[in-house]
Design goal:
The chain is mostly helical. The protein is built from nine helices and no strands. About 75% of the residues lie in helices and about 0% in strands.
Length: about 120
Amino acid sequence: MEKKDAFTLTTLILDVKSHAMKALAALSKFMGMYDSWLTLIKRYNFKWSNLNWSFAPFKSIFDENGNDLKSMIDWIMEVSAVLPLEYKNILLFNTLTGLRPDEAQKAIWLIKIRENQYVD
């Protein structure tokens, strides 16, 4: 990092690069050089995200392989069967609309309190 050259990181495989970047970020904070680290990230156009990792929690909830729609629906039905009616309706509303939880909460509030304004 002192050389201000991160070319070696570009040659690493994705998982190793991610671990190295995390370690370098921690080291740069410890050494008081975090601004230099951010400059390197920008110069080499490094990205923190890993697309395979981002879907892992979703896949683990519904299916071992993450590709079975029936198991997703079965899971929703199984969970809905033990929830109180109001929570069941919220789960189904979120599932059907695809809204984020805070967006769904606002939408449900508008539907209950200000139905005419929500439709408008």
